[in-house]
Specification:
By secondary structure, this protein is mainly β. About 10% of the residues lie in helices and about 40% in strands.
Length: about 170
């Protein structure tokens, strides 16, 4: 079950959902409009699941950064979200989809207890300029049925993400 705007507001007031920074005008009927952060990691080499991949980290300048097709970009949300009660799901929306930007297609689920600035997987169909802090998608909150287990206590590899995180599949393959 997805939370409505009123339910999200109530959960924010009680502390069951944390969005930092939070701007009330970014709430929509069933979601929160999140923004692109100010950093981007760019991958120009062959990617190898068994090894840590080198990258270049850029600060997106105020005049924007042109993203090119055929390259993998990892960005980060400006907002940090957390909830020990609700699961979260993040995606792009028509705002950026209409520009030919695909964001976060492979890992949209934030488990109960997920507490992060989200790493964003970004690809583009055509060259497109993006700007820091531009609206980049929506996050929804979902009621979890059954006994709650916090993601922070499971001990998996992405619990301590503090910004943009590359794939760490190599930890399992080594």
């Amino acid at each position: 079950m997805i939370l409505t705007r009123k339910a999200i507001e109530k959960a924010l007031e009680s502390g069951d959902i944390v969005i930092d920074p939070f701007e009330p005008d970014r709430l929509s009927p069933n979601a929160y409009d999140w923004r692109l952060g100010e950093k981007m990691r760019v991958f120009d080499t062959e990617l190898d699941a068994a090894r840590s991949t080198p990258f270049t980290e850029l600060v997106i300048p105020p005049e924007g950064l042109v993203l090119e097709p055929g390259r993998l970009y990892l960005g980060v949300t400006h907002e940090r979200t957390r909830s020990e009660r609700y699961a979260q799901m993040i995606n792009g929306d028509h705002t950026i989809g209409g520009l030919g930007i695909w964001v976060h297609v492979s890992a949209p689920l934030g488990h109960v207890g997920h507490a992060i600035n989200w790493t964003l997987e970004i690809r583009v169909a055509r060259p497109v300029r993006v700007y820091p802090l531009m609206t980049f998608g929506k996050i929804i909150f979902l009621v979890a049925h059954g006994a709650l287990a916090s993601y922070q206590h499971v001990g998996v590899k992405y619990t301590s993400t503090a910004g943009i995180d590359i794939s760490r599949l190599y930890e399992e393959l080594s």
